[in-house]
Design brief:
The chain is α/β, with parallel strands linked by helices and 345 residues long. The chain has two domains: 225 residues, Zn peptidases (Aminopeptidase), CATH 3.40.630.10; 97 residues, Peptidase M42, domain 2 (Elongation Factor Tu (Ef-tu), domain 3, Beta Barrel), CATH 2.40.30.40. 26% of the residues lie in helices and 27% in strands. It has eight helices and 18 strands. Strands 1, 2, 3, 12, 13, 14, 15, 16 and 17 form a nine-stranded mixed beta sheet that branches. A six-stranded antiparallel beta sheet has the order 5-4-9-6-7-8.
Length: 345
């Protein structure tokens, strides 16, 4: 079994977190990932719509291993009369999971302004009793307040802020006792795991047991990250988070093998291969099912009509699509299973 480079993985995760990449805001993170792939000794292939692939070696029966670079976030719907921003979600972001969060607004001209997601009214001491218990709603009572002295729509628009501008949430990475807390563990932690595997292949001069392609997609959060695949691909393995919950088997120290999500079951034979690989390699894994609101990029490939098998694995992760938490053991077990499967062990 290859040795998991924890330091490289965590540094790479934080490097990815430092780049705002709300779905559609792909250029900077795509370019960073392509540069990192070159530094590891591979030649990146850039997709037309946004995404990066790399050939990891091996021959025959091509396998794509994918992790996505895009994050959930917000977009300016319109500028309110008082200069605040009415916003809408990009991907599965809900008001109760982001009110109070610091954000960065990127204008169409590339200027960046900071701000905060706020309730309206925003001070509990001057909020009527019935409004205190009203759920947050992006259309009605949640806005973004810019860290700028603006009081009118005209003043905000004069900054260059307008409809369609992307809004990224502050990740707030921290780690203690092996527990990693941050937004966007989904899926930048798995992207870091995949880059770590690529680094190990080069350093150990190892060759996969079959042809393997790494695919860093940029549109998973809205459902079409891997709806295009290179010619000849036979299988897709998605690396993505495994949400924890009261009725879930997933746990932050383990890697989960996905049996089914909210769309349909994963390919039974490929899933069995992953399970058997984990058993043979002594990897700490669980089987789990994720409903009613979950899917991965492997689903997108199947729905696009490709004749492939698809499967998914990933680290147990709490608070999905919020301020997420996993453990470095979960990343290691995800790495170990990905390595063992690619190497045919």
């Amino acid at each position: 079994m290859s040795t998991f480079d924890e330091s490289y993985c965590l540094k790479t995760f934080q490097d990815l977190l430092a780049i705002d990449s709300t779905t559609g805001q792909f250029r900077q993170i795509q370019d960073w990932t392509a540069a990192e792939i070159r530094a590891l000794g591979y030649e990146p292939q850039i997709t037309h719509k946004g995404g990066v692939l790399a050939d990891l070696g091996g021959e025959g029966n091509p396998l794509v291993v994918t992790a996505h670079l895009d994050d959930i976030g917000l977009m300016v719907r319109h500028v309110n009369a008082d200069g605040t921003l009415n916003v809408c979600a990009v991907g599965g972001l809900y008001p109760f999971y982001c009110v109070g969060e610091n954000v960065r607004v990127t204008t169409g001209d590339g200027l960046v302004y900071t701000g905060t997601v706020c309730r309206t009214p925003n001070s509990i001491h001057v909020t009527e009793e019935e409004l205190r218990t009203t759920m947050g709603d992006f259309r009605k009572n949640v806005c973004v307040v810019l860290d700028q002295p603006v009081k009118t729509a005209a003043e905000t628009k004069a900054l260059g802020v307008d409809t369609g501008d992307y809004i990224a949430l502050e990740p707030r990475f921290t780690m203690s006792g092996g527990y990693i807390k941050s937004r966007f563990v989904d899926d930048k932690a798995c992207a870091a795991v995949l880059l770590s595997l690529m680094k190990a292949l080069r350093e150990e001069k190892a060759t996969p047991a079959r042809k393997v392609l790494a695919y860093f997609a940029c549109y998973e959060e809205i459902g079409h990250g891997t709806t295009w695949l290179p010619e000849g691909v036979r299988d897709v393995l998605a690396l993505d988070i495994a949400p924890t919950g009261p009725e879930q088997n997933s746990e932050e120290h383990r890697v989960s093998i996905f049996a089914k999500d909210s769309r349909f079951p994963y390919h039974s034979e490929m899933t069995a291969e992953l399970r058997d690989t984990a058993r043979r390699a002594g990897i700490d894994y669980v089987m789990d099912i994720f409903t009613p609101h979950y899917g991965t990029d492997g689903d997108g490939s199947v729905l696009a009509g490709y004749d492939i098998r698809h499967a998914a694995i990933g680290p147990g992760t709490a608070n999905s699509h919020g301020y997420e938490r996993t453990h470095v053991d979960g990343l290691k077990n995800t790495y170990d299973l990905t390595w063992a499967y690619c190497m045919g062990r």
